[in-house]
Amino acid sequence: MVRAAAATMFFGETAETLAAGGDALTDRIAQTLREWAGHSRERGVAAIFEAAQLLGMSNRVLGWQGGARHMTDLAHLTQLLGEVAHREHHNLPALRDWLRRQRDERSGAPERNRRLDSDAAAVQIMTVFVSKGLQYPIVYLPFAFHRNTTDSDVVLFHDEDGTRCLHVGGKDSPDFKTVERLGRKEDASDDSRLTYVALTRAQAQVVAWWSPAYHEPNGGLSRLLRGRRPGEPVVPDRCEPAKISDADALARLREWEAAGGPVIEESVPAPAPPLSGVPVPARLENRHFHRGIDTGWRRTSYSGLIRQAQPSGVGSEPEAAGLDDEVGDILLAPATSVGDVASPMADLPAGATFGTLVHAVLQTADPFAPDLAAELTARIREHSVWWPVAATPEDMAAAMVPMHDTPLGPLAGGLTLRRIGLSDRLCELDFELPLAGGDRRSAPPEVRLADLSPLLRAHLPADDVLACYADRLTDRSLGAEPLRGYLTGSIDAVLRIPDGAGHRYLVVDYKTNRLGDAQHPLTAADYDRPRMVEAMLHSDYPLQALLYSAVLHRFLRWRLAGYEPDRHLGGILYLFVRGMCGPDTPVRDGHPSGVFDWRPPSSLITALSDLLDAQGVAV
């Protein structure tokens, strides 16, 4: 396998060099391949291409016959693999399988079309100034006939001694007319030189256009051909008369043609096609729009579903650049103390920008970093360029370290975020979930949010902390929302947790809401379980949790071999990060402050998935 790789364009070895190099050459190439595999894991497929370039691949391959074609194809393939790796979270073996499928399939996708290996034969568009010193077989000059001139209070010119001057006296100064005339004359001379450059770039043919535009009298080509007659050496600064009929202009140009100048071709607009013989009605009537407008089909999100039902200032993520579920405090009943532990984030700012910054850091920071505080500080510096907040990166990182050491409760087996590496996290799982068949043209049964209520009543036990949300779904302001089209969004993270011989998967959503009274210091007691339940119901988070669980169910059903909802759906964690205070976080009935965990029956999730697909679910 190593010797086969050595014979590719990446190394350029031949049968002779492989035989002469022996095991030493094979070992060296094997070591290079191992290094490239590490580059791929750390920086992506493009890092392999870059490393091969540093070893001289480009210089070697471009020396082959058709080498430019090979390098173009390889660069194109590197880009495609990088995009797939980023979009699908593929490792090298998965990328290999993807590439095999693409090679075998007869797809007409645009990205599979080969790119040009050279643009030497392509049309090149450039300014006249840039074209100086270059030549082309054919040159087209569509705008040489006119030049835009503007009146300005400031004039740039050269005096009698050749000194470059800038006149700033304005139009009311006594010498302005003289200076303006000098400036216009210099501009006209510069334009004449550029026109000469443009006309002399062609090796075989120049094609130029002329038309009676408003600024045509100032154009270099116009002043050359219309502003003077054959035999006159002086090129005027402006054509006179400024306005000229098409016939007179054509006659002037014909003089140059007769003197051996350019070949004149008159551009005549093509005649309009004749109108079809449709009889004109004797009497006109207004048309009436008698069809109904389908307002039920839409591309929406969880935020869009609850927007009409929520009071001002309450919402959730729009799955876009910023967050709108963190715009203000959630006012709840006074906390019942379960421990007097101060929130590490008590003094940090609130609001959507802060919430977005926290999300971005949690998506990219490596919890296995030897120095977690330094890792968080680096990620905060990186993302605060886009999401600046009134806190130093060091202070914010110090406040985020304790949340990584807070137990995540029984659903996560007592693990902490620090003990769950990036290989066991799927961050920002973007989705487009078809509702009632998505684009399907048939008319499925009308499904609305209120149809979720019977599912909750049928599948949730009466003592479930969120069982009462079934009543909320029957509220007309929320329950009347149609579910047809597509549900789009992004799950903050999916965690893979060890479970016996296998794993289970948890939906995770980060929340930076302040649940405490602004008049008192924020503590873990503000995030004990009863208050988090109240916050969940207040902001319609149970709906978000259910929808995201249905998304995870669809994803695992598609991607996980031997998927069993009862075993693999691990539940939902809402991490109210301001209440996660580290190892000393108070625990009530097994539930740490700041960690809201909920595991609805898998039968509810599968029934919800079927309902969203408009299959009709009997409960």
UniProtKB/TrEMBL annotation:
Residues 44-205 form the UvrD-like helicase C-terminal domain. One of its GO terms (molecular function) is DNA binding. GO terms for biological process: DNA repair. Pfam families: UvrD_C (PF13361). InterPro entries: DNA_helicase_UvrD-like_C (IPR014017), P-loop_NTPase (IPR027417), PDDEXK-like_dom_sf (IPR011604), Restrct_endonuc-II-like (IPR011335). Keywords: ATP-binding, DNA damage, DNA repair, DNA-binding, Exonuclease, Helicase, Hydrolase, Nuclease, Nucleotide-binding. This is UvrD-like helicase C-terminal domain-containing protein.
